[in-house]
Amino acid sequence: MSTAAGAALLLAAAVVCSSADGESEARRRAVPAVYVFGDSLVDVGNNDFLPPPAPRAGSPCGVDLPRAIPGGRTGRFTNGYNLADIIAQRVGFDMSPLAYLSLTPQASLDLLSSHVGANYASGGSGILDDTGNGTITLREQVKMFADTKATMIKANKLGNNRVNRLLSQSLFLISTAGNDFLAFGDGRATRSDASAYIAKMVTTYLKHIKELYRLGARRLGLLDALPIGCLPGCRTSFGHDDACDAAANSLARRFNALLRLEMASAKAASMPGMEYSIASIYGIFSDMITNPELDNRLQEATSACCGGGRLNAELDCSASSNLCTDRDGYVFWDKVHGTQAAYQRAVAAMFDGAAVTKFTEPVSFGQLITGKQAAPVAVLDKLERPYVDLEAEI
Ligand SMILES: *[C@@H]1O[C@H](CO)[C@@H](O)[C@H](O)[C@H]1NC(C)=O
What we know:
- Belongs to the 'GDSL' lipolytic enzyme family.
- One of its GO terms (molecular function) is hydrolase activity, acting on ester bonds.
- This is GDSL esterase/lipase.
- Residues 1-19 form the signal peptide.
- The protein has helices at residues 2-28, 83-90, 105-111, 138-155, 160-169, 194-214, 232-235, 246-270, 281-290, 340-351, 365-370, 377-382, and strands at residues 34-38, 117-119, 171-175, 219-223, 275-279, 300-304, 306-307, 322-323, 330-332, 360-361.
- Helix 2 (83-90) crosses helix 10 and helix 9 (281-290) packs across helix 10.
- Mean pLDDT is 87; it is low at 1-21 and 372-394.
- It has 394 residues and is of the alpha/beta class.
- The protein has one domain (3-381): Rossmann fold (3-Layer(aba) Sandwich), CATH 3.40.50.
- The protein binds 2-acetamido-2-deoxy-beta-D-glucopyranose (NAG).
């Protein structure tokens, strides 16, 4: 009895403390919540809950994260914080919102307040349903968010308007496309049908973005495709002497250019009130790779920190890998992912207003967060209609 009462008191104290903390935290946040979609550049552990062949971020991934991260499994495909974490930190959170599949019953309740956000990203996934066997496809991630929103509205006594207002002010972050290019390596796509394949990627991406818009997203941050040909794992495949694969980079650039074009016209044609920024991860990483002298820390821009073989990039990063010691001096953590240090530099560039036109367009991430108010609630409500499966339209 007394133990139970003591426990109840402790719980009550914990609730009071956490809500006090929550309030002061909420005050320094620039947005009510962050919702994250996409691939391993932003996954914070969803894949830990998927069976193979979905890739998992095992040790030594996460080696540089604070040990206090719950569960010990970090689920991040890098040595420390990933792009979702660092972007969330820039807008006032401790790190990325939790992986959706990791939510405890209490965390699920917190999510329904619309003041927390969630991370639906899945390492290995792409834009297309055929990309990333066994991962959570972008289509499924958007459907999970649709389910989240429906539950928010049911749970929120103040109704649709309040939920829509909070969602319209929240940051929706998507990092995808990189894995779709694997189709050119395994024969599902060829150079001769590259235009059609890239067009299909962009069309499908826009369908998913329009669905997020319909669900209330009004502040959208997109990360474009990396210079995939300069990833250490790409340099060491196909036998091109460890140089960047120019043809692979050209595929990424063509996708990135078409995405900018189609996003601008889709906003003008059918997404009034949508504010967005496309960050050129391509440009930011190209800069780090070709001009290492611009950053006196990030000097190693060719080989991977964790792996094995040539450029430390012929083998996957695993517990038995060669691990570099100066991890802040490497651009690449393993054969495909950046280090926390590279991601920090990338996020600094995305938020820098002076980077507009160089690394972000039409506005920087900083302007996206502090910029114009999102669409009035009335517009959002008019757009409410039942979830339609996107399949039919693609
Ligand atoms: C997907 O993975 C499963 C399990 O490893 C395998 O049986 C199946 O053949 C794979 N499908 C494709 C299309 O590669």
